[in-house]
Amino acid sequence: MALVSLRNVTKAYPNPNDGDPILAIDDVSLDIEAGDVFGIIGYSGAGKSTLVRLINALEPVSSGSVVVDGQELAGLPEKQLRPVRLGIGMIFQQFNLFNAKTVWNNVAYPLRVAGASKEKIQARVDELLEFVGLSDKAKNYPEQLSGGQKQRVGIARALATEPRILLCDEATSALDPETTHEVLALLKRVNEEFGVTMVVITHEMDVIQTLATKVAVMDKGRVIETGEVFDVFSDPQNASSQTFVGTVVKGQPSAAEVAVLRERHAGRIVTFSFRDGDASQSSVFLSLAQAGIEFELVYGGINEIQGRAFGHLTLALRGPDAVIDGVLADIAGASEVTEAA
Questions:
Q1: How far is CA 127 from the centre of its chain?
Q2: Count of alpha carbons within 13 Å of 222, Cβ hemisphere only?
Q3: Is residue 323 part of a domain?
Q4: Is 69 in a helix, a strand, or coil?
Q5: Judgement on whether residues 301 and 266 belong to the same structural domain of the protein
Q6: What is the pLDDT of residue 278?
Q7: What number of H helices and E strands is found in the chain?
Q8: I need a surface site. Which of 21, 157, 207, 303 has the fewest CB within 10 A?
Q9: CA quadruple 86, 89, 90, 91: dihedral positive or negative?
């Protein structure tokens, strides 16, 4: 059984102009298994943050079913939702710390709300501050911390009640690249060492590539594609997914880009697509060189997700057409080859 299961979920808001209701979530069905780091990506306005608020019942669904850890949330009274929420931690883009409380008291807050004993609070807060590397900042206030330190406090606070699920809503968007890398490494430890299932909402593709194991692509309130991160990134099936993935993963050049490449480079423009298990780049280059074909890399790149490589390299090839045709036919048996028209 999935730890989080959504079936035909819709969320509609009243139209301020008295027109038809505005659909933020449109007939979404999704399963998130225990232990997953499940990324949800899409452009702004795709419905990502609304979906998160449905999972922890901060927003009621308009229709459909939301089951979290075996508990149906749709229609559940607020009193019965509170214990469910204790099992769901939340990390925010802007940290949402209490500025008037010390780091220690920020982490202790959800435990106090839950009615934990002083002894348990002391032990748990000390443990978490050590885990996130902030034991020496326990008496500091948020204004004395860097952005990365604030987010680590946010992570410690989200873990205070030992949740099974952690929701991360654009958790690194306010951080610089180096700090983002540190926070992602910490979140990976949370998943691996504590076994916490994560739902990661982001528009940053690097976050998904680094952290997630599975991903769903959203567009206009709908989930348009879902699967293993490597599969969705290396071979997106939906046109909107291809466009979104293309913001960080260069695919085959468009007709306009091919025209520019032809102005700048002599030869035939050919794209070689690589996926884990296909012919390697080196073997392709070796085949071209051994046939006496001159080649120049003019477009594309290779990406890596969790040790698996994929990408597209577009080359300008120069040599006798018959020789090039023969080599391309041989390579096509082990790797996808596309020649620009």
A1: 28
A2: 7
A3: yes
A4: coil
A5: yes
A6: 67
A7: 12, 14
A8: 21
A9: positive
Nearest to 74 by CA among 24, 10, 13: 10
Residue that finishes a domain, picked among 223, 245, 267: 245
Let me know if residue 250 belongs to a domain: no
Closest C-alpha among 57, 79, 84 to residue 69:
84
| Residue 306 falls inside a structural domain | yes
More confident residue, 18 or 193: 193
| Strands of 88-91's sheet in order across | 88-91, 165-169, 197-202, 37-41, 214-219, 222-228
Separation of alpha carbons 144 and 285, rounded Å:
54
- 259/240 same-domain check: no
Question: What is the predicted pLDDT for the residue at 277?
Answer: 66
Residues 41 and 134 in one domain: yes
Residue 313 to residue 219: CA distance in whole angstroms: 28
Contact 248, 202 (CB under 8 A): no
282 lies in which domain range? 255-339
- For the chain, the domain total comes to 2
pLDDT tens-digit series, residues 131-141: 999 999 999 99
